[in-house]
Write a structure and sequence with these properties.
Layout (H helix, E strand, L loop, with lengths): L5 H7 L12 H10 L10 H4 L6 H10 L1
């Protein structure tokens, strides 16, 4: 298994919510998947700022593009 590149990942992470998973994509994906959500990196910065990580929110944003 490859090494986690948390510091490198943080540079590309648009999540503004303070949490312990920032930069640890595997942990972030697992966390949100368990809640039927998507992580911030699936959303634009505007949509991310609402903190609505629901699949419905993602679909609505995607349809607006």
């Amino acid at each position: 298994m490859s090494e986690c590149k948390a510091e490198k990942n943080k540079k590309n992470c648009n999540c503004t919510y303070p949490c312990s998973r920032k930069g640890m994509c595997c942990d972030c994906l697992s966390y949100h998947k368990a809640r039927d959500e998507l992580p911030a990196c699936f959303f634009s910065s505007d949509a991310e700022s609402t903190y609505d990580r629901s699949i419905d929110a993602f679909i609505k944003e995607y349809q607006r593009r």
